[in-house]
Structures are given as structure tokens and as C-alpha cells.
Amino acid sequence: MSGPLDGVKVIEFTSVVLGPWACQILGDMGADIIKVEPPAGDTNRNLGPNRNNSDMSALFMTCNRNKRSIVLDLKKPEGQEVALKLAADADVMVHNFRPQAMVKLGLDFDAVKAVNPEIIYCATYGYSKNGPYGNKGALDDSIQAGSGIAMIMSMVEGEPRYLPTIIADKTTGMAVVNAVTAALFYKERHGKGQEIEVPMYETMVSFVMAEHQWGQTFEPAIGKAGYVRLMSEHRRPYKTKDGYIAVLPYWDNHWKTFCTIVERPDMLSDPRFKDMQSRLTNIGASYAETGKALFKKTTAEWLEILEPTNVPHMIVNTLDGLIDDPQLVESGFWQLHDHPTEGKIRMAKSPYNFSETPTDITRLPPRLGEQSEEILREAGYSDDEIYKMFELGVTKRPN
User: Fold this and answer.
1) Angle at CA 272, nearest 5°, toward 270 and 274?
2) Per-residue pLDDT of the chain in tens (399 residues, 90 and over written 9)
3) CA–CA dist 14, 58 (Å, integer)
4) Which of 73, 160, 240, 320 pairs as cysteine with 79 (C-beta 3.0–4.6 A)?
5) Residues 186, 191, 194, 196: is their CA dihedral positive or negative?
């Protein structure tokens, strides 16, 4: 059974994580992803552990399954010509070059639209081209800094810090998927393609300010920006007798249950905690008293006590611990596959569960240029033309 995007062809001109991860999600949903790489390959091919001293690093493989790889040297006119020919037969094109770079390569929206009027052309990069930052380069750290994430962290760390995950890349990647699938729906209804811009900066400001706009929601402002509960220094997993646990008695019914099971009727009658708004106003004290109550038992004891209740709670997993997490194991989230060159590898399956069009891992991460010949033949090039491209260095196959 095919995924919901079966029959959709996507030409991907991206590297690092944002674009590759977004296109991998589209591939999981059944789209045919043709990943166009420079002769040196996606920069992430050599970043992280690898098994065979090859160009198949861990970070590349977690972001590039369900794709076919073709090498094109876009600095050569012949490479640009092939790129346009591939785009002419595609439904979607995704790139993460800055706007002026695509103009220089002859692969900007107008150039692609000239060969494919119905193309969905998605550009994703640091800042919208409509603002003064439009030509600036960007990576996850700079976007975390600019969007307010790093400064929010200073409220608990004492100085600005980046989150230890590339949240800007991955959040913007999901925004790319949303935008592309919406454009595909519009094209299905109206037969028209379009240009899409998904900038990291604006995407992450929207993401951060959904809750943190707070008093700045009103004009004139009726308070500062920042959701106070999230910025409390006490907001963290709670210490138990032997470890940590996450517990959030958030709603009033949660609070009542929690105060009962921890045998703290005084917290239930305390006017500072009488309802959600009161607990928010006194969030530091609320968190502190919750922490005192939870320190009295072990993590296992609290998990057993909390399990039958409605109070949200969870173990505090390590990254390595996620591999054996019973929920992830039982739901089949982790899948082992035999890669033809890299041996047995672990893949996280798509978290999206469609009843009629399930997602699947149909292609393991490709070697650099693994499908160059195959894709060129599909595009109508003869064996002689393909051989000449190899000679000129326009394309290449795996070593």
C-alpha cells in the first residue's frame, strides 16, 4: 500500500538538516525524492560516526532515507541544464540556497517556472527575502539567538544558552512539509503551482511567540512578553529519593488529586494555589512545594502511585534510554534494516500513522550519486550523453 504522497515527484537541492529532514518526511509519505548533491556531497555525509570510513555518517543517514541521490555540479552549465530538465518533470522543488545564489545558478523561481509552469517551488533559508536580513546566512544557533530562544534560556541558566537540539532546523523543516502539502492540495484543486518561502527566522519567532507574546499581544502592551510559568527557574524535572521524575499537576482537578496523593492538604487549602491563575501568579512557590513533596519517595514509588491518576507524569529518559523505551519498542518505532554497504542500521519510523495510506521506509539512505545513471536515463539522456557527463565531472557514481 502506498503513502499519501505516492506519485508526487520532489527535486531536492538541500543539505545539512532542515531541507533533508523535511524532504525525508515527504519521502516517508510516499513521494519520490530525487536528492541533487554537489560532487563533494551533502555536507552532513561526513559528520558523526560512520562504520566504513565512508560518506555515510550517522547524521546523514537519519535525515536522508526514502531518497535517490544524483550528483550534479551546478557550477557547470551542463549541470544546470540537467537540473532544469529534472525540475521540468517534477511536482515540487525544494532548496535551501540563499535567493541570490539560485539566481546565479539559473534555478530561481522564474527560471524553473519557465520550464514547468505548475511547479511548487519551495525556498527555505535563514530570513525572508522581503526584509533587511534577506541576504544573511543562517544556521540553527544564529536563529535560536535571533528568535529569543537563547535569551529565554538565560532566565534559568544565568546567561544566554542554545537548546542542545537543532530546534530551528527541525521546526522549520516541519513547516516546509506543511507548506508543500498545502500547496499540493491547492494544485490538486486548481491546477496551479506557486512559489513558497519558508524562512527559519520568521518561522521560529512565530513558534516562540505563540505562548511568549503574552502581554505584548495587546496594543498598547499590558505587560511584558514571556509566559511566566515556562520561565520559572523551578520548572524542571523534580528530584526524588533516587533520581528524577516529570510531574505537572496543571489543571485544578490535577492539583486536587496531587495534593491528596502526596498527603499535603495544606497545599490544597493554601490561597496561593487555589486555582490555575493563582498558581501561575505564585509559580515559583507552586513548583517549590511540589518539589518538596516529591522528594520523599523514589521514582519507582511515585510512578506506581501516579499511574492510576489523571496527573500528567513521565519518567526522565536519557538519550540512550530511548532505544529501549517500552512505548517505542512496543509501537514498533525503532526499525532495524540491513543496509547494503553500512550493515545493520537503526531507523526511527515515521510518527504519522495513516489508516489508508501508511508511511513506510522503502529506500535506505543512498550512497553519493548512487542513482545518478538511473535518474539521468529517466530524464531521457542516452548512454553516450551520460558517459560524457561522467567524463566532464558533471555527475558521478559511488566510488
Assistant:
1) 70
2) 589 999 999 999 999 999 999 999 999 999 999 999 999 999 999 999 999 888 999 999 999 999 999 999 999 999 999 999 999 999 999 999 999 999 999 999 999 999 999 999 999 999 999 999 998 999 999 999 999 999 999 877 889 999 999 999 999 999 999 999 999 999 999 999 999 999 999 999 999 999 999 999 999 999 999 888 888 888 899 999 999 999 999 999 999 999 999 999 999 999 999 999 999 999 999 999 999 999 999 999 999 999 999 999 999 999 999 999 999 999 999 999 999 999 999 999 999 999 999 999 999 999 999 999 999 999 999 999 999 999 999 999 997
3) 17
4) 73
5) positive
| Angstrom distance (rounded) from CA 95 to CA 384 | 30
Measured between alpha carbons, how far is 29 from 32 in angstroms, rounded to an integer? 9
Euclidean distance between CA atoms 41 and 43, whole angstroms: 6
- Rounded-to-integer distance, Cα 275 and Cα 50, Å: 53
User: Using the 8-state DSSP alphabet, how is residue 108 labeled?
Assistant: S
- What is the pTM for the complete model shown? 0.94
Let me know: does 341 contact 32? Beta carbons within 8 Å. Answer: no
Q: Any alpha helices (H) in the chain, and if so which ranges?
A: 18-28, 58-61, 77-88, 99-104, 109-115, 140-146, 149-157, 167-190, 200-212, 252-261, 265-269, 276-281, 283-294, 299-306, 326-330, 372-378, 383-392
In total, the chain counts a number of residues equal to 399
Task: Classify residue 252 by burial, with Cβ atoms within 10 Å: 0-12, 13-18, 19+.
Answer: middle
Angle between helices 149-157 and 200-212 (to 10 degrees): 50
261: alpha, beta or left? (left if phi > 0; alpha if psi -120 to 50): alpha
> Residue 308, class by beta-carbon neighbours within 10 Å (0-12 exposed, 13-18 middle, 19+ buried)?
exposed
Assess whether the previous peptide bond of 4 is cis (omega < 30° from 0): no
User: With contact defined as beta carbons under 8 Å apart, do 369 and 393 qualify?
Assistant: no
- Cell digits of residue 80: 544546470
Rounded-to-integer distance, Cα 193 and Cα 117, Å: 7
Cell readout for 242 is 533516587
